[in-house]
Design a protein that fits this description.
The chain is an alpha/beta fold. It has two domains: 227 residues, Glycogen Phosphorylase B (Rossmann fold); 171 residues, Glycogen Phosphorylase B (Rossmann fold, 3-Layer(aba) Sandwich), CATH 3.40.50.2000. It contains 13 helices and 15 strands. It has a seven-stranded parallel sheet with strand order 3-2-1-4-5-8-9, sandwiched between helices. Strand 10, helix 7 and strand 11 form a beta-alpha-beta unit. The longest helix has 26 residues.
Length: 415
């Protein structure tokens, strides 16, 4: 097949772009012709998405939608594998070109802010179906910012996206949680599929594992946070959990933040307060890391903490850590409980609502287990190995092929 992958940026901004680079390589290896189109080449500090050597590349957004789409029409894809665009009109034009499957990495078209989280009176996941009633809750539940102009602009944007989702031949996602979300919204007329995926070797995650030396009784435990630093990623809550966790394990703690984002300055300020109060807790901010430097950092850690307060659609960093034999501690939100099992490959804290005490207790359970056995490390490796790439790719090709067949059947019925 001639498969056109689409997304908003040509750069590896997060897990969605990492996935897309990996999946295009795998589809190309199976003999499919790959095209790739995007809207913007930013942020410049991030590395480009990995593309197959012979991929056809199209940049959208530089001209009117119909003109921007013309080269794509000329390339004549059999099917479009879409991952979200900024411009709804461009997306609508693409849907006229070929059958299309949308991969829902996020709450695209199902939430005004895209967070799917109420932040008042406590932070907790939202399960509402998107619609006009969301406008009435936006300010009372602190769903987003304080600007009514922003609220109406984002409501219109998400309403347009939800309308476009109805035109797709299928919607695909990576967790049962997200499948249920899009089924509630009748995306693609209910043709919504879940297909978990593994972690690509090009990230260095399949390199030989280091030999872990026996730990002395006084050595600090090393925790890691990996990802974007914004409020709902829970970095402040993780910092507040450290004193109680330190008391629970009876040993110094070291926390490394690998990432960046709008909350970094605030988290650095708060970390200074925590470490002054508890001297044998240390916190380091290492900045955003490429995978080549992130892998040795993971190898030096004892556990990765994913303290997301919002319902993570999947939480790719967790399986990435498991691939290196590192257990994960996280709130039980969104799709996380589908790959993180208590006492098997890490520890879960209650997520509805998430609490600092719950997170610190989960950290303590994880570290105490590591102190007595390698069960969680072995479970992490086993869990990562249970999601091979070939299973996901077979499922994806079946869904893409089904979309093409469906569109042909509809055309034949109209003829």
């Amino acid at each position: 097949m001639r498969i056109l992958a689409t997304t908003w940026s040509s750069r590896r901004v997060g897990g969605a772009e990492t996935y897309l680079g990996r999946i295009m390589a795998l589809l190309s290896a199976l003999g499919h012709d790959i095209g790739f189109c995007f809207e913007v080449d930013e942020p410049e500090a991030r590395t480009p998405i990995l593309l197959p050597p012979n991929a056809a590349v199209f940049r959208l957004g530089a001209s009117a939608p119909s003109a921007a789409i013309a080269p794509v029409r000329a390339w004549a894809p059999d099917v479009i594998y879409a991952h979200g665009l900024l411009d709804a009109q461009l997306e609508a034009e693409l849907l006229e070109v070929a059958p299309a499957v949308f991969f829902a990495h996020s709450y695209y078209g199902t939430c005004i802010s895209g967070d799917k989280t109420h932040k008042f009176p406590v932070v907790r996941p939202c399960t509402r179906v998107f619609g006009p009633a969301c406008l009435g809750l936006y300010f009372p539940r602190r769903c987003g910012g304080a600007s009514p102009i922003t609220m109406m602009r984002e409501y219109s944007r998400q309403r347009a996206r939800l309308s476009l989702l109805a035109r797709y031949d299928a919607v695909m996602t990576h967790s049962t949680h997200m499948r249920e979300e899009f089924l509630r919204h009748n995306a693609a007329g209910g043709r919504v599929f879940s297909c978990s995926y593994g972690i690509g070797d090009e990230n260095g995650l399949a390199a030989p594992l280091p030999v872990r030396e026996p730990r002395s009784a006084s050595a600090p435990w090393h925790l890691m946070f990996v990802g974007r630093m914004d409020r709902l990623k829970g970095g402040r809550e993780l910092l507040d959990a450290l004193p109680r966790a330190r008391a629970g394990v009876g040993r110094p703690l070291r926390l490394t933040f690998a990432g960046d984002g709008p909350e970094r300055h605030e988290w650095e300020r708060h970390a200074a307060i925590v470490t002054r109060r508890v001297p044998d807790v240390t916190v380091t901010f290492a900045g955003w890391q490429q995978h080549t430097s992130l892998v040795p950092m993971l190898d030096s850690s004892d556990a990765v903490v994913v303290p997301s307060l919002w319902p993570e659609p999947y939480g790719l960093v967790g399986p990435e850590a498991n691939r290196r034999g590192v257990p994960v501690v996280a709130f039980a939100t969104g799709g996380i409980p589908e790959w993180l099992v208590e006492g098997v490959n890490g520890c879960l804290a209650p997520g509805d609502p998430p609490s600092i005490d719950g997170l610190s207790d989960a950290i303590v359970r994880c570290l105490r287990s590591l102190e007595s056995s390698d069960t969680l490390r072995k479970g992490a490796l086993a869990a990562a190995g249970s999601m091979p790439d070939d299973v996901h790719v077979r499922g994806l090709v079946e869904i893409l092929t089904g979309a093409v067949a469906r569109r042909r059947a509809l055309s034949a019925a109209r003829a």
